[in-house]
Amino acid sequence: MRLKKSLSVVLAVSTMLWGVCFLIHQVPIFFLALIFCCLIE
Q1: How far apart are CA 13 and CA 38, in angstroms?
Q2: Element (H, E) at 1
Q3: What is the distance between the alpha carbons of residues 39 and 32, in angstroms, rounded to a whole number?
Q4: Is the pTM of this model over 0.85?
Q5: How many helices, marked H, and strands, marked E, lie in the chain?
Q6: What is the pLDDT of residues 7-37, one digit of tens each?
Q7: Largest CA distance in the chain
Q8: Where are the domains of the chain?
Q9: Rg of the Cα trace of the chain?
Q10: Is residue 41 over pLDDT 80?
Q11: Which helix (H) or strand (E) is 21 found in, with range?
């Protein structure tokens, strides 16, 4: 049971880190899309 809990914790932490890295890489694209939308308005 303890092994399963630690495994889920590792999985949660790695998923969180991947999500943060993904967001950091998506930020420039997000800002470009935002500027593009503002220009269209």
Answers
A1: 36
A2: none
A3: 11
A4: no
A5: 1, 0
A6: 999 999 999 999 888 887 878 888 888 888 8
A7: 55
A8: 1-41
A9: 17
A10: no
A11: helix 2-40
Residue with tokens 């470009």: 32
- Between CA 27 and CA 15 the distance in angstroms is 18
Q: What is the pLDDT of residue 10?
A: 92
Name the one residue in this structure whose structure tokens are 């630690």: 6
Q: Answer whether residue 3 shows pLDDT above 80.
A: yes
pLDDT of residue 9: 92
pLDDT of residue 1 exceeding 80 = no
Kindly compute the dihedral angle of the four CA atoms of residues 25, 28, 32, 35, in this order, to the nearest 10 degrees: 130
Place of tokens 């790695």: 14
Token readout for 1 is 């049971």
